[in-house]
Design brief:
alpha+beta, 6-stranded mixed β-sheet, 8 helices, 20 strands, 24% helix
């Protein structure tokens, strides 16, 4: 069942077109993540759904109701901001209860909702504390609890983990995932962190310059990117790209042979329709899909070795000064200035 729908959504700030013809459908109970580089429009799109920005044109529906003319308080949404925005003079209980008291709930109803939310977030013992006596992770849980008590149609998260250190980011991310599984609520989450996007989302919306580049499940976008931007944005370390041209096409037009200055490949799946023999192309290979092979035709000189424990990331310079990366779960015996040859699985490569 569709819970949120955007049709032809556009937003201008003056003459600057920041959101461009966005069409998007979000089902009830889905966890959808808007991801992209800084300035791509993901937070603006979230604020349009929330009613904190005015739509230039298009239509937004929540629970099958047009909401363009409704204030945020009437849209059935609850928002968690990057800033916790807690009232410093109020206890955790009163921070969570404040919006309910403004809506005219009885003391009994407020107490029931706050207690229930505190139990879900495992923070019953914190209800009498003020924000100054809480850690960053605990403050973020209070902000999430303040959203839960409203029992909204849609939860909106605007980069809620940006102010936390690495350990707390991981811990709170896990808590948000568990919370979503427990509540089953429709959630729209904004982040620039691809790890958050890949681990949290049922569906990822990749944005660039206000346009939707691709929508799909995390592994669909990772394994079958529709364009070079999505291929390069998702994945760590970043995907390697090599310039060349299409030297041959299969009879059914689904795979191609690639010939470049660094390497060649014979059976690479095509991600673009209408390509022709001789067309310029870029071959993309993930660092994890390269393998050391003395007979391989990709040669690189090691410029940096990063030993991360769980994997080793090697930066190399190709014969024509094209930089690329290799990643392996093994602890490789490689050093700077070593010359290494590689091969790769052509079925896992991409041509754009």
């Amino acid at each position: 069942m569709e819970q949120v729908r955007l049709d032809g959504v556009n937003k201008f700030f003056g003459k600057t077109h920041v959101i461009r013809d966005v069409d998007l459908s979000i089902d009830k109970g889905e966890f959808v993540v808007f991801v992209g580089p800084s300035g791509c429009g993901k937070s603006t799109l979230l604020r349009l759904i929330a009613g904190l920005e005015t739509l230039t044109n298009g239509e937004i529906r929540i629970a099958d109701q047009q909401v363009m003319d409704l204030p945020p308080s009437k849209r059935g949404i609850a928002m968690v901001f990057q800033s916790y925005a807690l009232y410093p003079h109020m206890t955790v209980f009163h921070n969570m209860a404040f919006s309910l008291s403004l809506q005219g709930f009885t003391k009994k109803e407020i107490e029931e909702r706050v207690t229930s939310a505190a139990k879900i977030l495992q923070m019953e013992h914190l209800l009498d504390r003020r924000p100054a006596a809480l850690s960053g992770g605990q403050r973020q849980r209070v902000a999430i609890g303040r959203a839960i008590v409203r029992n909204p149609e849609v939860f909106l998260f605007d980069e809620p983990l940006s102010n936390l250190d690495a350990a707390l980011r991981h811990e709170t991310r896990v808590e948000i995932a568990k919370l979503h599984n427990q509540l089953g609520a429709t959630t729209i989450y904004v982040t620039h962190d691809q790890v958050e996007a890949m681990t949290l989302a049922d569906k990822i919306v990749v944005l660039k310059d206000g346009e939707v580049m691709q929508v799909g499940s995390p592994m669909e976008l990772f394994n079958h990117p529709q364009n070079e931007f999505v291929a390069g944005f998702l994945g760590s370390p970043k995907m390697n790209f090599f310039d060349g041209e299409i030297s041959n096409l299969s009879k059914d037009g689904t795979t191609a042979a690639f010939k470049g200055t660094e390497l060649s490949a014979k059976g690479v799946p095509l991600r673009t329709d209408g390509v022709v023999k001789g067309a310029n192309a870029r071959l993309a290979v993930r660092p994890q899909h390269l393998k050391v092979d003395p007979k391989g035709d990709l040669t690189g000189v090691v410029t940096l070795v990063e030993r991360l424990g769980t994997e080793t990331v090697v930066e190399l310079m190709g014969e024509t000064k094209t930089p690329f990366r290799f990643a392996s779960p093994e602890n490789l015996d490689l050093n700077v200035d070593d010359v290494v040859k590689f091969s790769f699985d052509e079925a896992k490569a991409h041509l754009f």
